[in-house]
């Protein structure tokens, strides 16, 4: 049943973003920033964590989850290191995910012939 909820919630988030893209003149980059900032705000007010426990990967994989991960990393770093944690926390919390995306993208480019369009 976890897979079904993850699929439904992740699909609903993607459908809402697609509706936003189709019905506004917002560029995709701005929509991505809106999603990350929304994840940060929902994490800050304490709504995102129960939602992520209920929805599983459907809530943690999209950009909303990335924003929440940034918030949690910054909050932990600020609690342990003070003001400097404001600048370090997001980097340490998301370093593995960003590094994996870069590494796997590079490996995929070795197997396939990427071309600029």
Automatic annotation (TrEMBL):
One Pfam family of this chain: SpoVAC_SpoVAEB
Superkingdom, taxonomy of origin: Bacteria
Keyword field contains Iron-sulfur: no
Keyword Oxidoreductase: no
InterPro entries cross-referenced by the UniProt entry: Spore_V_AE (IPR014204), SpoVA (IPR005562)
Keywords annotated in UniProt: Membrane, Transmembrane, Transmembrane helix
Organism: Jutongia hominis
Protein name per Swiss-Prot or TrEMBL: Stage V sporulation protein AE
Ranges annotated as spanning the membrane: 6-24, 31-48, 83-112
């Amino acid at each position: 049943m976890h897979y079904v909820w993850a699929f439904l919630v992740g699909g609903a988030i993607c459908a809402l973003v697609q509706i936003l893209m189709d019905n506004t003149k917002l560029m995709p980059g701005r929509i991505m920033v809106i999603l990350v900032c929304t994840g940060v705000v929902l994490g800050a007010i304490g709504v995102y964590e129960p939602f992520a426990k209920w929805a599983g990967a459907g809530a943690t994989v999209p950009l909303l989850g990335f924003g929440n991960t940034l918030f949690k990393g910054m909050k932990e770093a600020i609690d342990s290191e003070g003001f400097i944690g404001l600048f370090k926390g997001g980097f340490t919390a998301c370093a593995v995910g960003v590094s994996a995306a870069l590494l796997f993208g590079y490996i995929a480019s070795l197997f396939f012939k990427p071309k600029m369009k």
